[in-house]
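From the shared-data thread, chain only:
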Amino acid sequence: MAAAPDPDKDFPWWLVLVGTVIAVLFWRVVADDLYATVLATLTKGIGITLFVTGVAFSGAAALGMLLALASLSRSLILRQLARLYIEVVRGVPVLVLLLYVAFVFAPALVALWNWAGAFVGAEEVRTRDFSMLWRAILALTIGYSAFIAEVFRAGLHAVDRGQIEAANALGLGRWLRFRLVVFPQALRTILPPLGNDFVAMVKDSSLVSVLGVLDITQLGKLTAAGNFRYFETYNVVALLYLSLTITLSLALRRIERRLRLPGQR
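Structure, as tokens:
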């Protein structure tokens, strides 16, 4: 029986095709005054898109790790609370979660802060002081933490039990066992789906435009509403997102290859 082909060894003809299309579109953008004007406007939103993605993903990864550890805890209460959070949050669409956090959870959080601050004489905070940018980041953090928790849980659970028993035999404590033995091995399993979640968050960050956050998508909507050139404007919007996601995917794939064991190459 013939061995299954390795897709990683295929020549990336798809990348040649996509790269050619992107190059042609960028040439069109540079050569056309309208496209160039639209691009100059939309590039202001790249920083916001990357900031929202970077901060939200970092928070989601940290919270997801805590949830994964809780779901693997010896405590039944911690396991059930982690499972409750994960299942509830995963069952709510990201767009609905954005709206809920922005207009329900954030005002409630401000009210709770003011209530607690009244006991220590802290200055009262107004709901409008909680910017839509940070409400969007909080919503994405909450939403993606549930998915990332499952990625971490599966990766940690996949570590061979013999490795953990060997670490116990060496007298390593729980923290050292996790840091030196369990997590480094789990990382090879975790990284590919974690990278996919990061790329997915770059795309889902476009949903923050419904809250008026001036990311690429929101600037595209405002630009198209002003010049009525929807074809050109959304071509540039799609081009920017495509360039970001493909660049990140290739970088993550390169990191993944470096982390592979020699026998897996």
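The domain at 45-255 is CATH 1.10.3720.10 (MetI-like fold).
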